[in-house]
Amino acid sequence: MTSAESYYPDEPVKPVVKTSTIPGPESAKQIAQLDQVFDARPAYFIADYEKSIGNYIVDVDGNAYLDLYAQIASIALGYNNPALIKAAQTPEMIRALVDRPASGNFPSADLQKTIKQILKFAPKGQDHVWSGLSGADANELAFKAAFMYYRANQRGYDTDFSTEENQSVMENTAPGAPPLAVLSFKRAFHGRLFASGSTTVSKPIHKLDFPAFDWPHADYPSYKYPLDQYEQENSLEDDRCLALVEHLIKTWKTPVAALIIEPIQSEGGDNHASNYFLQKLRDITLKHKVVYIVDEVQTGVGATGKFWCHEYADIQPPVDLVTFSKKFQSAGYFFHDPKFVPNKPYRQFNTWCGEPARMIIAGAIGQEIVDKDLTAQVLRVGDYLFQKLEALQSKYPTRFQNLRGRGRGTFIAWDLPSPEERDLLLKKLKLNGCNVGGCSTNAVRLRPTLTFEEKHADIFIEALSKTVADL
After folding, report:
1. What percent of the chain clears pLDDT 90, i.e. is strictly above it?
2. Are 324 and 297 spatial neighbours (Cβ–Cβ below 8 Å)?
3. Rounded to two decimals, what is the model's pTM?
4. Catalytic residue among 207, 280, 306, 326
5. Can you list the domains of the chain with their CATH numbers?
6. Does residue 326 carry a catalytic annotation?
7. Is the peptide bond between 356 and the residue preceding it cis, with omega within 30 degrees of 0?
8. Residue 243 pairs with which residues in a beta bridge?
9. In angstroms, rounded to a whole number, what is the distance separating the alpha carbons of residues 297 and 263?
10. In the annotation, is 349 catalytic?
């Protein structure tokens, strides 16, 4: 058990809101200036990261918000964490930042140690890692790995490429550029790049105006809540969606080489998949020789009370690839079958092959989580927070629809009746000192750091109660 005081003795006791509007006048001024050189339209306020500490983010107007959004779910340990500052000051970090090795051709003498540190926190059953630069990049790299693996199994891992393959690929045609597909799920979010964009189905704005692959999208289960009151209905929903997955694999116009799923769809509305559903997908992918990819970009690194969310399902045999980013501050994918290493060098390759500076930070984050047993804290605080939210749900049932995330740490969400009410709630929560995010059209999602405690939950519930009563 840890305490915010041990990390952050100077963390604020409670939020402080000095301005009557957010963004405040200084933030508004700086946003306008920034917009002249950078698209600042999405900015909520201008943060002062020097003054932000622990679970509080401070803006340039002096407002200090209890942060339950944490840089879009990407801050694991809080602001200005001393363990990460220490890691940032090491000679290894200086070399990684100043010399920025092109790790594929000129790997640093530090690289093996850095990778072994990351692998200490790999999902169960995974013992290899390939590094990338972002969550979308991690998924794109995983797709490449899956396609090469799929074709190697057809061709033979040690079989060389044919003359026809070498020639046709230069024209973007088969057999060198084979027609293959990745199956994803409706409401999914896997990134905003080209292949990842084709598997993203959460909001049109993510993918408008750029070409897309013609790939299938299955239905992700839509459960009724509370789960224990709708077991039969939810079981039927799982089986319906599983049947559709298998139908798409068997009938899609091109071979489905890979399937990618989030154990909890985050941007798409905090939609949960049951342990049964995730295991049955393993059975289906094995049956049809489809690569099984679990996207843990947002769910990974402790937020659900396990280091990796899909470990709740104890999927057997282990999935093929697990992608990561966000709270790990690094990116890439874990795997265990050596044949996911392409048969020739330079096939999975780029200038830097990841970011060694971020990999060092990832290792330090993982070590802090283990040393401080933060996953246990997340479970404890999550249960405490969920009970408080259930009490509010009883009082305001229309404003807390489909409350979900029980037993998944602080990875909690609920729906409001409309997008307008959700957006108004988030706006007023900031004025009451809490920075909270939404997802999908009308859901509120909680993404605090792993150092979030009961005292923080109490502050949030007080602010939330006041906000809901004022809607």
Report:
1. 98
2. yes
3. 0.96
4. 326
5. 4-75+373-470 (3.90.1150.10), 91-370 (3.40.640.10)
6. yes
7. no
8. none
9. 10
10. no
